[in-house]
Amino acid sequence: MEKGVSIISASNYDEWAKVYDLIYGKYSEDLEFYKREAKKAGGPVLEVGCGTGRIYLGLLKEGIDAYGIDISEGMLNSLKKKATEENLVPKIYLADMRDFSLGMEFNLIIVPFRSFLYNLSTEDQLKSLSNFYRHLKPGGRLILNFFYPDLERMMSFGKESEDLLISDSGNYVLREKSYFVNEPDQIIQTDAVIFKGGELYWQGSFRLALIYKKEFELLLRIAGFSNWVVYGSFDYKPLTSFKQEMIWIVDKL
Questions:
Q1: How far apart are CA 186 and CA 160, in angstroms?
Q2: Are residues 131 and 100 in contact, defined by beta-carbon separation less than 8 angstroms?
Q3: Measuring CA to CA, which residue among 102, 106, 55, 42 is closest to residue 82?
Q4: What whole-number distance in Å separates Cα of residue 9 and Cα of residue 206?
Q5: Given pLDDT bands bounded at 50, 70 and 90, which one contains residue 6?
Q6: How many angstroms separate the Cα of 246 from the Cα of each of 19, 91, 226?
Q7: What is the largest CA-CA distance in the chain?
Q8: Amino acid 8: pLDDT
Q9: What confidence score (pLDDT) does residue 12 get?
Q10: Tens-place pLDDT, residues 140-157
């Protein structure tokens, strides 16, 4: 990948905001984990990539002093609408994880649901991690999760998957296909198409950078971190397989 290529554009995220809740709104595997960790933090919490509020609004409902940033105005508008409907007052900002500056430090920064992988270059990965470090209080904690580069997943690249999406507005069919667009730099693209009643309803794509465990450990060290643990599930089970999700808990000493 050429130097300077950055995370996916805000306009692309705005397109995804139209269907994000339809595709991912019911996912809840990580919610209790992040709520529990946010309560333990005992102070201001920042969610990076808060999107339409799947986790962020859950934090507010628990009375947690939570802030959020996202690169997509469309995502944030959706979050604000839901917050109004639930009489919640969000503290959210349109910002990029690489260079945001909120003028305050946090006890906890979370980057859920693999959002860190939208940093496609090593330069952007380090910019984001260094920025997280700057925004953490001494003794603060960074928590993020993303999947281990799954060999079986990669063997399925190029094949189309199909899922049924059931919502209050009807049933939809989601078809997705992932493939490498840059093998040396571990960049994958996923193309998604949604049909309703047999007719095209929406289509879009996104790119992620695969990151291995030892690779991320080096990134953390360069960004200034020196103490962390990585689990293989949201119930703190050890990481033993490439089929697991990596749950990183990183302390700023």
A1: 20
A2: yes
A3: 55
A4: 9
A5: very low
A6: 26, 28, 18
A7: 55
A8: 55
A9: 84
A10: 999 999 999 998 889 999
pLDDT-based confidence at 3, cuts 50/70/90? very low
Task: Give the pair of three-digit tokens for residue 231.
Answer: 């689990």
- For 88, the token pair is 């919640």
Q: How far apart are CA 70 and CA 210, in angstroms?
A: 21
pLDDT surpasses 60 at 7? no
Quick check: helix, strand or coil at residue 167?
strand
SS3 for 109-162 is: EEECCCHHHHCCCHHHHHHHHHHHHHHEEEEEEEEEEEECCCHHHHHCCCCEEE
Residue type, 9: S
Dihedral pair phi/psi, residue 64, rounded to 5°: -80, 140
